From TrEMBL:
<feature type="region of interest" description="Disordered">
    <location>
        <begin position="176"/>
        <end position="216"/>
    </location>
</feature>
<feature type="coiled-coil region">
    <location>
        <begin position="57"/>
        <end position="91"/>
    </location>
</feature>
<keyword id="KW-0175">Coiled coil</keyword>
<dbReference type="GO" id="GO:0005771">
    <property type="term" value="C:multivesicular body"/>
</dbReference>
<dbReference type="GO" id="GO:0006900">
    <property type="term" value="P:vesicle budding from membrane"/>
</dbReference>
<protein>
    <recommendedName>
        <fullName>SNF7 family protein</fullName>
    </recommendedName>
</protein>
<dbReference type="Pfam" id="PF03357">
    <property type="entry name" value="Snf7"/>
</dbReference>
<dbReference type="GO" id="GO:0032511">
    <property type="term" value="P:late endosome to vacuole transport via multivesicular body sorting pathway"/>
</dbReference>
<comment type="similarity">
    <text>Belongs to the SNF7 family.</text>
</comment>
<dbReference type="InterPro" id="IPR005024">
    <property type="entry name" value="Snf7_fam"/>
</dbReference>
Length: 216
């Protein structure tokens, strides 16, 4: 059956980075060969410059021409591989840019969807009504503050003689109330209310006995 239909290829598919790596490896290999050919050409040129014209010099020149031809072929191949590598690098950069663009577009779609959902829950008319109500409440609050902080004017045309007479009348009322309170209080309470009086007695003087002038 495998001979008729073949087997399924399970090898991993080549990637762009892998292809670039392979091309760079081939370019490095060609650089090594070019370095060897340049060294060989330098040797031939040195020998040819020291030889006289003749069959030997002609044969050596033919070898140098073949080496030079091989070098040109390798250089052409190297240029082709370098161009391929550059093209693949450009393709890789375009692929990366496309991925970044797609990521940005997806993020913008998600953000737009979220914003639409959030803004859809907001009623602009309701917000404007709330703003108007807040403004009205602020005006009412300011009026209340102005009313509370209003200063009451004291009349300036007050007669000092009237104030003195009123003060004297208040003093007489106070004295009358005090005398009435004293007359209404019983005598025994008045004695108790009176502050106690203490009489300090003079200290006793002790006489000191005089010693006897003589005995017998």
């Amino acid at each position: 059956m495998n001979r008729l239909f073949g087997t399924k290829n399970t090898a991993p598919k080549p990637t762009l980075d892998g292809a670039i790596t392979n091309v760079e490896t081939r370019i490095s290999s060609i650089d090594v060969k070019l370095a060897a050919l340049n060294s060989e050409l330098s040797t031939y040129q040195t020998k040819i410059s020291k030889m006289r014209d003749g069959p030997g010099k002609t044969a050596l020149r033919q070898k140098a021409l073949k080496v030079l031809q091989r070098r040109k072929q390798y250089e052409a191949q190297r240029d082709q591989l370098s161009q391929q590598s550059w093209n693949m690098e450009q393709a890789g950069m375009m692929q990366d840019n496309l991925k970044n663009v797609m990521t940005t577009v997806d993020a913008m779609k998600t953000t737009t969807k979220t914003l639409k959902k959030q803004y859809g829950q907001i009623d602009i008319d309701k917000i404007e009504r709330l703003q108007d109500e807040m403004a009205d409440l602020m005006d009412v609050g300011n009026e209340i503050q102005e009313s509370i902080s209003r200063a009451y004017d004291v009349p300036e045309d007050v007669d000092e003689a009237e104030l003195d007479a009123e003060l004297e009348a208040l003093g007489e009322e106070t004295m009358m109330e005090s005398s009435m309170a004293d007359s209404a209080m019983p005598s025994f309470l008045q004695d108790e209310v009176a502050p106690p009086q203490f009489i300090d007695e003079p200290p006793e003087q002790t006489k000191v006995k005089e010693p006897a002038s003589g005995l017998g």
